[in-house]
Automatic annotation (TrEMBL):
GO CC entries: cytoplasm; elongator holoenzyme complex; nucleus
Subcellular location: Cytoplasm; Nucleus
Coiled-coil annotated residue ranges, if any: none
Protein name: Uncharacterized protein
Keyword Nucleus: yes
Native species: Aphanomyces astaci (Crayfish plague agent)
UniProt-listed GO biological process terms: tRNA wobble uridine modification
Keywords, sorted A to Z: Cytoplasm, Nucleus, Repeat, WD repeat
PANTHER family per UniProt: ELONGATOR COMPLEX PROTEIN 2
Length: 202
């Protein structure tokens, strides 16, 4: 068995203790070797930047995104949203009071705009988004076993529209979402849902 060593360089101080509160690392759009992560920090989203080059430096918080009235429970970063032919960053977040918010970095300049997509009667348990060549889909699972699906257009300013509701029921509360595009399709999306029922729903 091959053993690897790992050096811990940074702990996301103040990161909320929910399993979906930390995004994957996203490469910087400024041509350097840095990466960014987003995480829920109480009722705001913190964005930290860190370099992958040696010697490694401690990441720094470069942006805080506000607007949630309750503790953030889920954060997802999509770096493939295309507007005017240019890939841009969006962050989808949900909180314990059922608020779903979208944060857009329209000019890739570090300046974010945020707006509320929906307010549910139950908390948001997981969020995800995926962009296809023709559409961007936003997913939000709630603590009553429902999955809300929205679309995001590429207009200026971008707007969202409710697409459908996937009612799984309270015995199938979703705690994690994963998405991928179907091979050979410009619009087909496969969604995997996992949660308290110990099952994976496709």
């Amino acid at each position: 068995m091959h053993v690897m060593t790992m050096n811990e360089l940074f702990a996301a101080v103040g990161c909320n203790n929910a399993s979906q509160c930390l995004s994957r690392a996203i490469p910087s759009r400024h041509g350097d070797s840095s990466y960014r992560i987003a995480f829920g920090a109480s009722t705001s989203i913190a964005i930290a930047s860190f370099a992958s080059s040696a010697p490694a430096a401690i990441p720094s918080i470069v942006t805080r995104l506000h607007g949630h009235p309750a503790r953030i429970s889920s954060v997802h970063w999509n770096s493939h949203y295309v507007r005017n032919g240019v890939e841009q960053d969006i962050i989808l977040s949900g909180d314990a009071a059922g608020n779903l918010r979208l944060h857009l970095n329209l000019n890739n300049d570090g300046q974010w705009i945020s707006h509320e997509i929906a307010t549910c009667t139950s908390s948001i348990s997981a969020v995800n988004s995926i962009s296809t060549p023709t559409q961007t889909y936003l997913f939000a699972a709630t603590s009553v076993g429902e999955v809300l699906v929205y679309t995001l257009d590429d207009k200026s300013p971008p707007s969202t529209a409710h697409l459908c509701l996937l009612p799984l029921g309270q015995r199938h509360i979703v705690e994690t979402l994963a998405t991928t595009t179907l091979n050979g399709s410009d619009e087909g999306v496969l969604v995997a849902l996992g949660g308290v029922d110990l099952q994976v729903h496709l």
